[in-house]
Every structure is written in structure tokens, then in C-alpha cells.
Amino acid sequence: MISTVYSWCFDCGTLHATRINRPRTCTGHQANLGYTPEEALAAKHRTFGDANQWHELPSHHQQRITANG
Ligand SMILES: [Zn+2]
Description:
Elements: E1 4-9, E2 14-19, E3 30-34, H1 37-48, H2 59-62
Antiparallel strand pairs: 1-2, 1-3
The structure holds zinc ion (ZN).
């Protein structure tokens, strides 16, 4: 059963795990990427390459990721 979603946080430069239906503990710019850490990291590299921080993201990616709490 899926209970956690993994997202890359471009403000912290790390992966965050968030329980589904719970508020995020970080309000940074995050992209939801998968339901396991491995899946999320693979999707992150596929989509964003080596960019780990917000300033490394091209603007077309920045426009699709919003900060949320
Ligand atoms: Zn964060």
C-alpha cells in the first residue's frame, strides 16, 4: 500500500519523504517523483539531470515547480 511520496527538494538539495495526506514538513520547491526513494531518484535524474539546487534548474523547469506547504 502506498503511504509515502518521495520528492526532490531543490531548496534543500535532497530527497524528502512525505506521508500521503499529511502536510509537508518542508515548504521548499519540491517535485513529486515516486513512491520509493530509488524510483524517485531515478525519475529525478531522468527529468532534471544533475541539477540539485534551485539555481541549477533551467527556467522551464522552475516554472513547473512551485513551493508548497
Ligand atoms: Zn526541503
